[in-house]
Design a protein that fits this description.
The complex is a heterodimer of chains A (180) and B (188). Chain A is mainly alpha-helical and 180 residues long. The longest helix of chain A has 23 residues. Chain A is 77% helix and 4% strand. Chain A is built from eight helices and two strands, in the order H-H-H-H-H-E-E-H-H-H. In chain A, helix 3 runs antiparallel to helix 7 and helix 6 packs parallel to helix 8. Chain B has 188 residues and is mostly helical. The longest helix of chain B is centred in the middle third of the chain and has 30 residues. Classes of the chains: A mainly alpha (180), B mainly alpha (188). At the A-B interface, helix 1 of A face helix 3 and helix 4 of B.
Chain lengths: 180, 188
């Protein structure tokens, strides 16, 4: 295929303008997701871990949106699915069962259960969309990061529980797609 | 075997829309054929509007940069050429205004240079249009002529006529001037 000579300064400038436009588009498109770490910070207090996770989530999301194509289309399902364990983890500390002298909280269970549901959603959406495995991986990473924002307050155990639940929820859909 | 020229790869309107949708989606392979297909169209419009090769080149570059910077927010299915030419026309108008201001500033400074080539032709065309407009003005009634003269040559006020009335009269007089112009010369 013939191609435009990108050493031509005029064409190169136009291409740079296109890339700038894509960055701007990605930044503005993913900006609302910043509300999630802000919400967690407001509820659970300032934590370096939440700030770092929020920054990582934002950076990854913006990069994927900038790259575009199939991967970009899995950003929204990934983040939306990740809000399930996030909300579950935020609500869990408010619910606990006390029996006599001991109280049992549901934080870990909420993280693992929320992760499982998120895995089911991501797997189902991926299966229906018939996109490539990169798309699934992107959705899984973004979903886990979003969920981890809430579950990190439980500690690494919460994040691991959520990740395990996520894998478990996603596995059947991936396994069914394997022969394709 | 000769390679197919890039512009020919996106010759139809549907092709252009498809390529633009691909580019909006992040497919960088669509950049080159789209650039090759849009550049001559935008250049032709800029040349027609600015009548100056160098200015047309500069304006075209700006238009192409703006166009591709907005490619990510392109709405699928929207006709590409009207969209591109709309941006180009807007940019050329802004360019023309800038050029006019530059020329006026130069006249004030006394540093204006003699006009040449396309600029001279443009000046002659403008002078011709002015002459025709003045002739058309003669065909109007005294009142209309008085209103228009007060608007464009003297002051924007007329003795005994104020605000809304003056605006209404000016509007009507301009309409009649346009009609007369069209009747006399066959164009607006």
């Amino acid at each position: 295929m013939a191609s435009i000579d990108l050493n031509d300064p005029a064409a190169a400038r136009v291409l740079r303008a296109y890339e700038r436009g894509r960055w701007r588009h990605a930044l503005t498109g993913f900006a609302p997701v910043l509300l999630l770490p802000m919400l967690v910070l407001c509820i659970d207090g300032i934590s370096l871990r939440t700030i770092a996770l929020g920054a990582l989530l934002f950076g990854t999301g913006v990069f994927v949106l900038w790259r575009g194509r199939d991967a970009a289309r899995s950003v929204l399902p990934g983040v939306l699915a990740g809000t399930v364990p996030l909300v579950a983890a935020i609500c869990a500390p408010r619910m606990h069962v006390c029996t006599g002298s001991s109280c049992m909280s549901f934080c870990l269970a909420a993280c693992a259960g929320g992760g499982f549901l998120a895995g089911v959603v991501v797997g189902l959406v991926w299966r229906r969309s018939r996109r490539g495995r990169v798309s699934l991986a992107i959705a899984a990473v973004l979903s886990t990061m979003t969920g981890a924002l809430g579950c990190s307050c439980v500690g690494y155990g919460g994040v691991l529980g959520m990740a395990a639940g996520f894998m478990l929820g996603m596995l059947p859909w991936v396994a069914r797609a394997a022969p394709d | 075997m000769a390679a197919t020229p890039l512009w020919a790869q996106v010759s139809t309107v549907d092709d252009l829309a498809q390529q633009m949708a691909r580019l909006a989606d992040g497919d960088r392979w669509a950049f080159a054929p789209l650039y090759a297909a849009l550049k001559p169209r935008v250049h032709a419009l800029c040349r027609a509007m600015l009548r100056h090769e160098q200015d047309a080149e500069d304006a075209m570059q700006q238009v192409m940069e703006k166009l591709f910077a907005r490619a990510s927010s392109y709405e699928h299915g929207r006709p590409v050429v009207p969209w591109a030419l709309g941006i180009a026309a807007w940019e050329c108008r802004a360019y023309r205004q800038k050029r006019k201001r530059r020329r006026e500033d130069a006249l004030v400074d006394g540093s204006s240079e003699p006009l040449a080539g396309d600029e001279l032709n443009e000046e002659i065309a403008r002078a011709d249009l002015q002459r025709l407009a003045l002739q058309a003005l003669q065909a109007l009634s005294d009142t209309d002529r008085e209103v228009l003269t007060a608007t464009f040559w003297d002051e924007a006020t007329l003795a005994g006529v104020t605000g809304a009335t003056l605006r209404k009269r000016r509007e009507r007089a301009l309409d009649r001037l346009r009609t007369t112009f069209g009747r006399l010369y066959g164009f607006d």
